[in-house]
Every structure is written in C-alpha cells, then in structure tokens.
Amino acid sequence: MTSNTSHKKPSRKELRVSLLLPVIITVVVWIIGLAIYALAPGEVQFNTVIAILIGGGLVSYLIFYMRDGSVRLRMVALTMAIPALIGMTLGMVNGRFAPIIIGFASTFLLLITQRALSTPFSYRAAAQAFDRDDTDRALMLINKSISARPDFAESYQLRAMIRMVNQQFESAEQDASKAIELQPKSDQFHNTLGQIFWVNGRYPEMRDTYQQAISINPDRAMHHYHLGLSHYRLGDFRDAAESFSVATRKTVPTMAYDLLTHFYLWRSLLEIGETDMAQTTHDTMQNFADGLEQLKDQLTQSNLEHIRLLANEMEAIAKAIQTTKIN
Question: pLDDT tens, 123-144?
Fold first, then answer.
C-alpha cells in the first residue's frame, strides 16, 4: 500500500510570496510613478512611466521567483513572458485592452507548447502503461525516455516507482536518488525515495527522507503521516504522535489513510500516557470506520514488510472502531 503522487503543490510560504510580492511591486511602482508625475507633469507621460515600471517590476519578480531554477529554465521563463510584457506596455501606453489580452494569451499558449515539448513522448506513454499496471512496457518506454533526455528528472522518478513495484529495490533507490540529484527541491521525489525505504522496512532512512520532504513542503499531509509512521515503527512514540497530529489537521487523501492516521495517533498517545487525548482521538477515529474495507482491499502484497505489518494490525484496527472506550 503505497501513496505516490506526481503533482507538487506550492507551500504556504510560496503562495504568500506569489500573492504579496506582485501587490507590493505594483504599489511601489504607482508611488514612484506619482512622484515622477508630480516632479515633471509636463514632460513625462504618466502611463508610459507606469508601464515601464510595472514591466520592469514583473521581470524582477519573475527572476526572483525562478531564482532556484537552472539558467536554462530562467531564460525560457523570461522569453515566454515577453509577449505578456509587450502587450501590457502597449495597452498601458495606448489605453487599450486588446494588446494586453493578446500578449497574455500569447504567453499562455507558449507555456502550453513549452510544457508539451519539454516532456518526452516516451515518458507520457510510460506513465500511461504504468497506470494500466503494464510494468514491462512502462519500463521499456521509460528507458527510452531517459536515453533521449537524461536530464529529465521525472523519468527517473517514474522508473523508480516501476522498479519498486517490481521489487527491484536497489535499482529503484538509485533512480529516486538520481531524480533528487537533478531536482533537490522536489518534495515528491523525496516522497518516492521514502516509499522505497518504507516497503523495505528501512525506517531510519524513511524518517530522514520524510523530514527532508517536509522541509521542502510542510503542507502535504501524507509527508507527516509517513514521518509519523517511521517514528512509530522505531518506537519513538512522542515524535510519532506529533507527526500524526499534524497530519490529522491537514487533508488526508482517502478514508483509509484517515483511519490509519488516527489509529496510529491513538496508539502513540497511549504509549506516552496521554490517555485523555487518546480517548478523544479514539472517538474521532469512529468517523473513518468505512476506511477499514478500503484497507482490506489493498492488502494484496503480503510478502512486503510494510504490508505484512499492516496485515498484523488489521484485527486491532477493527477492534478499535468497534469499541467506544479505550482500555
């Protein structure tokens, strides 16, 4: 029972920066423009000054926001932003909306085209084959993708997942590590590596990997769940309770994981003597009783360490959601 996702959501810090910085730039630009207009009202076109300042400010913002990307990626981003900047400048100078709309539409189309061309076709085909559980074809196609684009990190992540499913764990670990090497700030690549450690019962490495994932993206509930699980398996119940508690306050993807999160939190709280909090958690756990059937449906790989341990706990989970008081 693994939980891999390929889409990375921005952290709260990134969202705050992306929302506030353009506003700050705009306010500063207007203040500067008003000051210039006040000093030389007859010599300078106010709209022209504002357009130039906004364009320069947005370029500066784009450079700042892409500061952690490669030089090639920053140059591509700036190139694709040019139509929008030109359209905005012309629109501001002439007082017309048409150039602005055309400029932003052109940038949007460039973004779509760039995304389509930058992703190898063999990678897309491999992902589709993997979704159909055709791991042999998926592996063949992803090998072609890596041969064609050895710098495309997502290909190594997908091959790591394919090899993990095929129980080729050493090779899977190497691929996940390579993906992280290419994109060290991807929390999803760390998640893939953490999954590999998880299915092997390598809990110290799993713990360290999910700590890194959380440092990159602290808003993903499943990172906290897996960090908590690694602490739980290592017997570090206080740290486990803390991580599971954080996970319960975020969006867990399925009812089954909601049930597991509350179950392990409950057991961790009991281990550290927090009986009142344990009772509250136990009561809340009843809301996720339907997740038990989902868990049973997913226990199909009993030869793997994490599945074997979960299978052994199924009776305790079932008993926990059938009682109203903890012992």
Answer: 999 999 999 999 999 999 999 9
Q: What is the pLDDT of residue 43?
A: 47
For residue 68, the tally of other CB atoms under 10 A from its CB is 10
- Distance of alpha carbon 7 from alpha carbon 187, whole angstroms: 10
CATH of the domain at 326: 1.25.40
Same domain (yes/no): 137, 174: yes
Burial class (CB in 10 A: 0-12, 13-18, 19+), 35: exposed
| DSSP state, residue 253 | S
Say if 298 falls within a structural domain.
yes
What are 198-205's contacts with CB under 8 Å, separation 24+?
198/2, 198/226, 198/229, 198/230, 198/306, 199/2, 199/164, 199/169, 199/304, 199/305, 199/306, 199/307, 200/169, 200/305, 201/233, 201/305, 201/306, 201/309, 203/230, 203/233, 203/234, 204/230, 204/234
Domain that holds residue 92: 12-118
Q: 276 in a domain, yes or no?
A: yes
Domain assignment present for residue 138? The answer is yes
Residues 20 and 103 in one domain: yes
Residue 37, domain member (yes or no): yes
21 in the same domain as 103: yes
Q: Give the count of domains, the chain.
A: 3
How far apart are the C-alpha atoms of 268 and 244, rounded to whole Å?
A: 9
Q: Are 49 and 37 in contact (CB under 8 A)?
A: yes
3-state helix, strand, coil in the chain (%, to 5): 75, 0, 25
Rounded Cα distance, 301 and 143, in Å = 26
Residue 145's Cβ-count burial label (10 Å; 0-12, 13-18, 19+) is: buried
pTM (2 decimals)? 0.71
153-194 residue pLDDT tens: 999 999 999 999 999 999 999 999 999 999 999 999 999 999
